[in-house]
Amino acid sequence: MFSKHEASQLRKEFWTTFGQYMKPVPSFDGEKVNWLNYKTGEKDVLFKMDADNKKAAIAIEIVHSDIEIQQLYYEQFLQLKSMFENIAGKDWTWSLHTSDNGKLLSKIYRQIDGVSIFSKEDWPALISFFKQHIIDLDQFWSNAKYGFENLH
């Protein structure tokens, strides 16, 4: 088990390593991109990567504060689902539900279990997982982003 400080340092080291690994990789459009802090251009559509001691996940999260607009965003993603699956594959979970506290949660995500950000032996698998899927999301978004410009 790690102290909070050690865990924080390992997390920081992993994400720094991943960022350095991805730095030379251009976006689908050939531009320089910050893969760790990917900017979709839509403040309510986020690409998130996360890992802990048991799993890793990458997600598109829709976070608009207006429930109706958030649902509209999610429906737009559903309309683009076949394009998304052609680029990113079919092994993604599409989730739209209300939390216990009444907040609407919308996300499209993919997860792998049995890996730990705290185990450097798992880092190659984590880097491979995140690299493949963030590049896929970038390619999808390069084509799909225009369908979201007038939703808010």
Written account of the structure:
- With 152 residues, the protein is α+β, with helices and mostly antiparallel strands.
- Helices cover 41% and strands 20% of the residues.
- It has four helices and four strands, in the order H-E-E-H-H-E-E-H.
- It has a four-stranded antiparallel β-sheet.
- A hairpin with a 5-residue loop joins strand 3 and strand 4.
- The protein starts with a helix and ends in an 8-residue tail after the last helix.
- The mean pLDDT is 93.
Q: Give the spatial strand order of the biggest sheet.
A: 1-2-4-3
SSE series: HEEHHEEH
Structure class: alpha+beta
What is the CATH domain class?
Alpha Beta
Query: Total domains, how many?
Result: 1
Mean pLDDT: 93
What form results from the Cα inertia axes? globular
Report the biggest beta sheet as strand number plus sense, adding barrel if it closes.
4 strands, antiparallel
First and last CA, distance: 45 Å
> What is the count of β-strands?
4
CATH topology (level 3) name: Yope Regulator, Chain: A
Radius of gyration: 16 Å
CATH architecture: 2-Layer Sandwich
Strand residues, percent: 15-25%
Helix content: 40-55%
Output the number of helix runs: 4
